[in-house]
Design a protein that fits this description.
Layout (H helix, E strand, L loop, with lengths): L10 E8 L3 E8 L14 E16 L2 E14 L5 E3 L13 H10 L5 H8 L3 H18 L7 E9 L1 E8 L4 E6 L4 H9 L9 E4 L3 H10 L4 E4 L1 H18 L6 H9 L1 H5 L7 H13 L1 H15 L6 H13 L10 H9 L1 H5 L9 H16 L5 H9 L39 H9 L27 E2 H9 L4
Parallel strand pairs: 2-4, 6-9, 9-10
Antiparallel strand pairs: 1-2, 3-4, 4-5, 6-7, 7-8, 8-11
Helix pairs in contact: 1-3, 2-3, 4-5, 6-10, 6-12, 9-10
Length: 471
């Protein structure tokens, strides 16, 4: 009898044939059934056989097919017939359980087509196995709810929601879209959502509405990146409006120097300063737009929300009428999102990490040659070796300054929709609250009997894995 090279004690090897690409192994179950599955009687008699071919783990760079000689029995007590049960075989498809498990793990970091070619099945089968594997991971994996949450989106065929843990630089979830109902559903089922303190986001109304509806205790912070980017956009609108009055040579020069106009003045070298000086002196509107852009960036040097609001009002009054249309979007956004924007000056929480994560996901999407959303989500969230189990050192959070005793509130000079009870209530929420009592540190080591916490997939680890070809 051939040696049992399968490492499956529940089967006896009857014969082996091989060729350049495959092993064909004849096997049978080592232990025949001893009782009828219908009446539990042990009075059984053989009633024929059939051969079933199932796939197993590749060996020696060859695909493996197991030809199982499956015995059929008849129960003399109840008269019913049945085939013997086949141990270690997947219930849904003709492959061993260990092969299905390996396909699921490998599909996290390899292409479906590559795995199908290696094991000798169809790509559709790999997708189905991977789907079942991810569903099991969903049941057993729990990510820690972040205290500082980031919400953003990425465009993969259509906009998708991205949820991150800002404190630990990890990704928590990818949502199929960025609609309010989808975000509300995610937040509603989030365990420990009452512990969320801050939510950083861009100025997308469904995000704000969803957070206010489900986790009203969380402070909404509009990330600095999304606000200052609007100043650059306004600068670009003014630049493009001048193109019609320029010669073709001048248009090419202005297009080439657009990066100089978008740079901070303090970051310019001597040549760039010379170019900037030439454009701003010859075209006063361009000079005014550059000045407004730089002054708007300076608002973020404010030391408090009140200081930031005062600087914005002063900046708003300095906008010349001839370029007011270019900066109208900033004024409108600040008016509609006043409190979330100036919340940043008490809580400098930013989702810049989410923005870098978006770049990572795009790279993975290109490498995967068009993964489905579910596959891409699983590859990001469940990549082995990328999960973070220890919390990062807390980011520095600016101490809130003590506010003077409240007096009459003067509302003149503020944006129109700032004069309402919701804004007044939001200002009241910015008064410093007593610090909570410190909680004892709970060990997360498995040696203590407490399972390790899972903070999500670490972005730096994901990047390293992609660079090394591990994902």
């Amino acid at each position: 009898m051939p040696a049992n090279i399968l490492n499956l004690p529940c089967y006896k090897v009857l014969g082996i044939q091989e060729n350049e690409h495959d092993y064909h192994i004849d096997v049978e179950a080592a232990e025949p059934p001893t009782s009828c599955p219908h009446c539990q009687s042990s009075n059984l008699v053989g009633f024929g056989r059939r051969e079933q071919m199932v796939k197993d783990l590749p060996m020696h760079a060859r695909r493996v097919g197991l030809y199982i000689d499956t015995r059929r029995f008849r129960c003399r007590s109840c008269g019913k017939t049945f085939y013997e049960a086949l141990p270690e075989i997947d219930e849904k498809r003709l492959m061993t359980k260990r092969l299905a498990q390996r396909i699921g793990k490998q599909a996290i970091k390899r292409t479906f087509a590559g795995i199908a070619k290696e094991v000798g099945c169809t790509e559709f089968t790999v997708r189905a196995v991977f789907s079942d594997y991810v569903n099991e991971l969903e049941k057993t994996t729990r990510f820690e709810t972040p205290k500082w949450m980031g919400i953003d989106e990425i465009h993969l065929i259509k906009p998708r929601g991205v949820i991150t843990n800002i404190q630990n630089n990890t990704i928590v979830e990818l949502l199929p879209n960025r609609n309010k109902d989808t975000v509300v559903r995610f937040l509603h089922h989030l365990e420990g959502k009452e512990r969320i303190q801050y939510v950083a986001m861009d100025m997308w109304m469904p995000y704000r509405d969803a957070v206010r509806a489900v986790i009203p205790q969380a402070e909404i912070v509009v990330a600095k990146f999304h606000v200052v980017r609007m100043a650059n956009d306004a600068m670009e609108r003014v630049r493009k409006s001048l193109r019609e009055s320029l010669t073709p040579k001048q248009r090419r020069g202005l297009m080439h120097d657009r990066f100089v106009l978008l740079k901070h003045e303090c970051d310019l070298n001597d040549k760039e300063r010379l170019n900037l000086d030439g454009w701003t002196k010859n075209y006063p509107e361009l000079g005014e737009a550059y000045r407004l852009k730089e002054q708007f960036f300076g608002i973020y040097d404010a030391e408090s929300p009140d200081d930031a609001q005062a600087k914005f009002i002063q900046w708003q009054k300095s906008i010349p009428p001839e370029i007011a249309d270019a900066f109208a979007d900033i004024e409108r956004a600040w008016g509609n999102w006043t409190m979330p924007i100036i919340n940043y000056f008490n809580h400098p929480v930013t989702n810049a990490y989410t923005e870098s994560l978006n770049g990572l996901i795009r790279v993975m999407d290109r490498l995967g040659r068009g993964y489905s959303f579910d596959a891409l989500r699983a590859k990001i969230l469940f990549a082995e070796g990328a999960r973070k189990h220890k919390p990062s050192r807390p980011k520095f959070e600016r101490q809130e300054r003590r506010q003077p005793e409240p007096g009459p509130v003067m509302m003149h000079g503020l944006p129109g929709n700032f004069k309402n009870f919701e804004m007044a209530d939001s200002f009241a929420r910015m008064v410093p609250k007593p610090a909570p009592e410190p909680k004892p540190c709970i060990p997360t080591s498995t040696e203590s009997g407490i399972p390790e916490k899972n903070y999500g997939a670490d972005i730096s680890t994901l990047i390293r894995m992609i660079e090394n070809g591990e994902l």
